[in-house]
Amino acid sequence: MPPIAIGIHGGCGTLARELQSEADWAETRAHLEKSLRAAWAVLASGGPALDAVEAAVVVMEDSPHFNAGYGAALTEAEDHELDASIMDGATLAAGAVCAVRRIRNPVSAARAVMERSDCLLIAGDAADRFAERSGLAVVDNAYFTTERRRQALASLKARKQRGTIALASEAEKHGTVGAVALDRNGNLAAATSTGGFNNKPQGRVGDTPVIGAGTYARNGLCAVSCTGQGEIFIRRVAAYDVAARMHYAGQTLDQATAALVFDVLASHKIGAGMVAVDAAGHVRAPFNTLGMARGWIENDGVVHVATHQDAIKAAQLERA
Amino acid sequence: MPPIAIGIHGGCGTLARELQSEADWAETRAHLEKSLRAAWAVLASGGPALDAVEAAVVVMEDSPHFNAGYGAALTEAEDHELDASIMDGATLAAGAVCAVRRIRNPVSAARAVMERSDCLLIAGDAADRFAERSGLAVVDNAYFTTERRRQALASLKARKQRGTIALASEAEKHGTVGAVALDRNGNLAAATSTGGFNNKPQGRVGDTPVIGAGTYARNGLCAVSCTGQGEIFIRRVAAYDVAARMHYAGQTLDQATAALVFDVLASHKIGAGMVAVDAAGHVRAPFNTLGMARGWIENDGVVHVATHQDAIKAAQLERA
Known about the structure:
The structure is a homodimer.
Chain A: E1 5-9, H1 22-44, H2 49-61, E2 82-88, E3 94-100, H3 106-116, E4 121-123, H4 124-133, H5 147-162, H6 170-173, E5 177-182, E6 188-194, E7 204-205, E8 215-218, E9 222-228, H7 230-235, H8 238-249, H9 253-264, E10 272-278, E11 283-284, E12 291-297, E13 303-308, H10 309-319
Parallel strand pairs in A: 3-4
Antiparallel strand pairs in A: 1-5, 1-12, 2-3, 2-6, 5-6, 8-9, 9-10, 10-11, 12-13
């Protein structure tokens, strides 16, 4: 049977180990595994990669441990504006929403835009109204708020006042969730969802809803979902650049994703990470930060979940 | 002295000749020439490509003959939502706004986002407020409305009711303006601005504010500004794909732009066009529609302005 694979990330802004209780880390890993298994159930039964990535992202959007959906970052105005996108590698169809405020699962709104509208990207209130008309669950904006994000916002506002904002960790600032999948029919798909960064200006849109920057999928090449300072990912057209390196320059997924994360994006002095899968079902999840919540199941069916650097080093050794 | 060059487009949705008076065509050409000369004045005096593309686009935004700024398309709600972006090929810095309603010159707002904010893309009301705080001219939304667009909207709404929407011309639907430039210091820049398409759903965002799709610039390679059905340009990461073909596959500007317009984008059965300049100052402006308002001045200083296919054929012969 042709290979299947799922890869996910929960953002490259993972906290240092000591900043969260072991119970919280255990729950983070449990939610990553739940996300993987939701996608795997689709793929293993012959279902489409698009359904798998949506299912994986919905689990992370519903978890308070990731900056997307419930538990999303707060804007400077202390509310939430969410971005998401999804792309079908078989048709290159894609959908996205930005600066939405009332859709419980923005990734499903992105999919609705792709499948039920003539648009690819819908912004703001109009996207909320579109999702509501499409029958998706809507919530009050306050639904997305967690105590953890309130504390992070207070900490960032204090740093800004003290002039120590440059010392803020990636974890205080950014965060995103994403998934990539290969299904039995050889179709690739990618999806990404985020609350942006804590204390972000209202109206700011990052790379998550930008096809080519935060999300890209094309059959025969790769599916990619990114995490990190979105402005740089847009400037470097990061997700599509992985595909372009493979297509035009003959690079492998490993070479192309490593070039982006450790060379191109790192040259801008930013934290960066991505998860990607190629047409043969190889998953890669490189990052240049302290940690990146992530997980993958390749065709062997073995579940991998990790949050910090040491685990990825072990994984790299294992692969070598 | 190193070469300089400017290229502009006023959208690939140019009307058939017989649908507009000769006086209107003359004014269209005059405004294209004014746009080119505004940019050329910057470049010839050693000024930056960024200033040149902004100046060129501002002239077209202020003209009723193009779908950007004054004269922009009307949404289905009979008002205006504008998108714009700008990119500096020297630094890969970029700025963009989407779904803005009150900024007289959206391209200048995009530049302000690039230079005076930590964001790359700002959406909706927040972008209007940012532009106002940055000291840019704001106007009532009704400022952008022209009689021509009111008629086009009425015609499209009638077609939709009659079920003949598929027969609507590119000119009834789309339109965009854009500019690309090479300056004496070898710096490339690109900018694009649009009102989207007539009768567009509120909140719809096309490729114009999406770096990599509608706009891209990178020193040593090319600057690109696109026009056509934006959703397809986003799916094909069209502007960046020109650069990727040149960088990774060694294609010339001519080969890369032709591949996009006549092969990749045309395969989606859409009208498509772009203007692009390479690091040596060659300008190309391919399109696959009846016409594309366009103009260019290469290093020889000769001003070229054209609106329809016959002119481009002549120009191609001249270059051959």
